[in-house]
Amino acid sequence: MTAKKTAEEDLKRKEKNLQVKHKELAQRERDLVEFQNSLKDLHRNLCPVCGHGLQLIAAENLEVLACEDCRGAWVDRASMEILIKYTIDRRKNFFTKVFGLS
Ligand SMILES: [Zn+2]
Fold it and tell me: pLDDT tens, 35-64?
């Protein structure tokens, strides 16, 4: 066996090992995503403070997850933006009524 042939076989073996490691790494990444999703499912709709179940309360384009045990409430970004706008509008209305400002 020539030195060149041995080097080629060694290179092929290294490439094969790299392919195997790449496949193992890809599988580990899929396993990690699956594990993270199972953790999310495990904690979904549970209060992050006390662990009791959360109730979805929907009203006027708002959705709030509320805990009846510790009275905590969680909103998504869209609902939070609606709440902020509502608060700002109410303040504007208040100052307009009281001070005639707009
Ligand atoms: Zn709670």
Answer: 999 998 888 889 999 999 999 999 888 889
Separation of CA 61 from chain center: 22
pLDDT at 57: 92
C-alpha of residue 87 to centroid of ligand 1, in Å: 25
What is the pLDDT at residue 95?
80
Res 2: pLDDT: 84
54 contacts 48 by C-beta, under 8 angstroms: no
How many other CB atoms sit within 10 Å of the CB of residue 81? 11
For residue 62, the CA-to-ligand 1 centroid distance in Å is: 20
Q: What is the Å distance from ligand 1's center to 12 Cα?
A: 58
Helix (H) or strand (E) holding 74: strand 73-75
Cα–ligand 1 centroid distance for 88 (angstroms): 28
The enclosing H or E element of 81 equals: helix 77-99
